[in-house]
Design goal:
The protein has 643 residues and is of the alpha/beta class. Among the domains are: 163 residues, no CATH class; 96 residues, no CATH class. The chain is built from 7 helices and 37 strands. A hairpin with a 2-residue loop joins strand 5 and strand 6. Helix 2 crosses helix 3 and helix 3 runs antiparallel to helix 4. The two termini are 64 Å apart.
Length: 643
């Protein structure tokens, strides 16, 4: 990534600034100056003054500009409680024109009519401009100004902050090449804090700079981390990959912000300052977790089961030494089905060292009849269908909810009526099909540690009346709540970044995509929803009417399958994709005249040409339907299950 530390910044709305006043006479006492130093905020600012009604900013070369996009930034920092030297980003030193004879490289400002003045001295063989310091001066009236010192001769002689600008007005000259000037105070400089695009850039750039030296770009060892005393490979590869992905995202954002063609203010998806600060907090948390993790040895793992070792070495021994090291195990991200139906393996406690695993595939250990012991990594949040069914380990588990690692894996046995389940604190996920067809389940409580609810996790739980999704959940499988016919209340807790139940709608909505994924009999679809997912309302008892707002542009074919109590369907006027013409109690795709969703009271209009796939699927209360002569095509399973 191309990186710049000199910011010739792009245009943005002007921020709140510390307004400058016109004139002040002299420095306040040193004690007042020192006391004021503690009030100065560290940060990055523009240096600006006002001449009449015009703001003038300092540029990279020390010139002045009235265009903030051409201005330069000062970084103001403190050292041990006192103000450190402010540093102009890679700029030429602000020059003193002197009498014009001593500074041949003096650059005229404001079309040659004013100069930025730094101090009382003339350039000669005994002086070096680099010995000059710049500091921020805090005035008694709460305004900021710049003052400077010269330490060339081992002493500090502070100058009036007001003398940093020539006292002549722009446009005035003394009739010669040299602009008029005076050492009387004229203008006071202020610090203006950047906002918007520039502020966002500064936060992200500082964040990336803080961590970039932790990346070790060795093509042979791309996942090593600088632990402070050399490079080592750590145990928590999942966190490391998240950290790297975050930095890569930050780098992409920085590149985007530096693109002169990128219009930040017009981008509806532009990152905000709040999001940038959240990334900063996330990076700090991830990095601390990495530093707290174990540095892995390069020794080979001692397997208790030689058959397990043979399979592991055959698949993941990357250096072909006949062993599987801890580092090689930690690099594995997918087990595949290499253990499926293996009848000889008995123990695999060493799986705990496969720390990059975040999921166990469906049927990964299915029918491994001799497998009695297994320990999965703590990072695993997702377990697929039947991953441990048919193993000796599962067979010896008692009836009830079986956990593997930090996953609620499967409810074993027949669940009694009116069962209430409280998932253990610290549980990270609900496995696919964990409570599938547990008809006795009436209530489930999730801890705020849950991040993943797997596919069909609660499918067929017809006695489940309400669900509350904690703020920690980031993944909900498809379809996690299929055929939960008794649902009457759905709530996503505030603070969840992936899902919401906006407007008390009694539904689960994917926040970013505005996709409704789970509804119930009491759902009111908000006018911000764009898509209704397949099975979102499947088999919801008591759902008698549904109103499709004009925001909806896509509806899954089986979104309302099996809703036998559904009698009324209305599409709001103004919807550009669907309609319910002639009060037909159906959803019709307007452009194709295709009826995609019907109900027991649907009257098919004579303008419909196609009855779509699954349009009346599983409506077993449907007693009759009249097909008008306009219909020329009927999709597969359009009336499947209508008996």
């Amino acid at each position: 990534m191309k990186r710049i530390y000199l910011l010739l910044l792009l245009l943005f709305p002007l921020s709140t600034m510390y307004k400058s006043s016109n004139v002040f006479a002299a420095d306040p006492p040193e004690s007042e100056y020192l006391a004021a130093m503690s009030a100065i905020k560290e940060g990055t600012y523009y240096l600006v003054t006002e001449v009449g009604e015009t703001k003038w900013y300092v540029t990279q070369s020390g010139n002045l500009t009235d265009k903030v996009e051409n201005a330069c930034l000062f970084a103001i920092s403190k050292d041990s409680g006192t103000l450190a030297n402010s540093k102009l980003y890679d700029t030429a030193f602000l020059i003193d024109p002197g009498n014009g004879a001593h500074f041949s490289n003096a650059t005229p400002l404001l079309d040659g009519n004013a100069y930025l003045h730094l101090g009382f001295f003339y350039q000669d063989s005994g002086n070096d401009r680099n010995d000059w310091e710049r500091q921020v001066f805090y005035l008694k009236n709460g305004k900021y100004a710049i003052r400077t010192s010269n330490t060339t001769y081992g002493e500090t002689s502070w100058l009036d902050a007001g003398r940093v600008f020539w006292s002549c007005e722009p446009g005035e000259t003394d009739g010669s090449i040299i602009p008029c000037y005076s050492y009387e105070p004229a203008y006071i400089w202020a610090l203006e804090e950047p906002v918007g695009k520039v502020k966002l850039y500064l936060i992200l750039d500082d964040l990336y700079t803080l961590y970039e030296n932790q990346l070790y770009d060795d093509v042979d060892n791309p996942d090593y981390v600088n632990m402070g005393s050399g490079y080592g490979q750590y145990a928590d590869w999942v966190t490391w990959r998240k950290f790297k992905a975050l930095l890569e995202n930050i780098a992409e954002l920085i590149d985007k912000l530096q693109d002169p063609d990128y219009d930040y203010d017009s981008d509806p998806n532009a990152y905000t300052i709040e999001q940038a600060n959240a990334m900063k907090a996330e990076a700090a948390s991830l990095w601390q977790k990495i530093l707290d993790s174990e540095v892995l040895p390069n020794d080979g793992i001692s397997f208790a089961d030689i058959n397990v070792k043979a399979i592991c070495v055959a698949n993941w021994d990357t250096n072909n030494d006949g062993e599987l090291s801890y580092a090689e195990a930690a690099a594995v991200t997918d087990l595949g089905e290499v253990f499926k139906s293996n009848q000889t393996i008995t123990t695999f406690d060493e799986l705990q060292y496969f720390t990059a695993l975040e999921e166990i595939n469906a049927r990964a250990f299915y029918d491994c009849k001799s497998l009695k012991s297994i320990i999965i990594p703590n990072n695993v949040t997702y377990i697929g269908y039947d991953a441990f069914i048919g193993t000796a380990w599962y067979d010896i588990q008692p009836d009830g909810l079986v956990y593997v690692g930090k996953i609620a894996y499967k409810y074993k046995g027949t669940m009694p009526e009116n069962t209430t389940i409280e998932i253990d604190e610290g549980t990270l996920g609900i496995a696919c099909g964990a409570f599938s067809h547990c008809y006795g389940l009436t209530s489930v409580t999730f801890p705020n540690s849950i991040t993943t609810i797997g596919n069909d996790a609660f499918s067929g739980c017809r006695g489940l009346t309400s669900i509350t999704i904690p703020s920690s959940v980031t993944t909900i499988g498809y379809p996690a709540f299929l055929d939960c016919s008794g649902l009457i209340s759905i709530n996503v807790l505030p603070g969840n970044t992936k899902y919401d139940s906006r407007d008390n709608c009694n539904a689960i909505i994917a926040t970013k995509s505005n996709q409704l994924i789970t509804g119930c009999k009491n759902t009111i679809i908000p006018n911000s929803v764009k898509l209704i997912e397949n099975y979102a309302f499947s088999s919801r008892s008591g759902l008698t009417s549904i109103t499709i707002p004009n925001s909806v542009t896509a509806i899954g074919k089986v979104a309302f399958s099996g809703c036998n109590d559904l009698t009324t369907i209305i599409v709001e006027e103004g919807n550009t994709v669907y309609d319910s013409r002639d009060n037909c109690n159906a959803i019709i795709e307007t452009s194709t005249n295709t009826l995609i969703i019907g109900c027991q009271n649907t009257i098919i209009p004579n303008s419909v040409t196609t009855i779509g796939e699954y349009a009346f699927e599983d409506y077993n209360v449907l007693t009759s339907v009249t097909i008008p002569n306009s219909v020329t095509s009927i999709g597969r399973y359009a009336f499947y299950g209508c008996i």
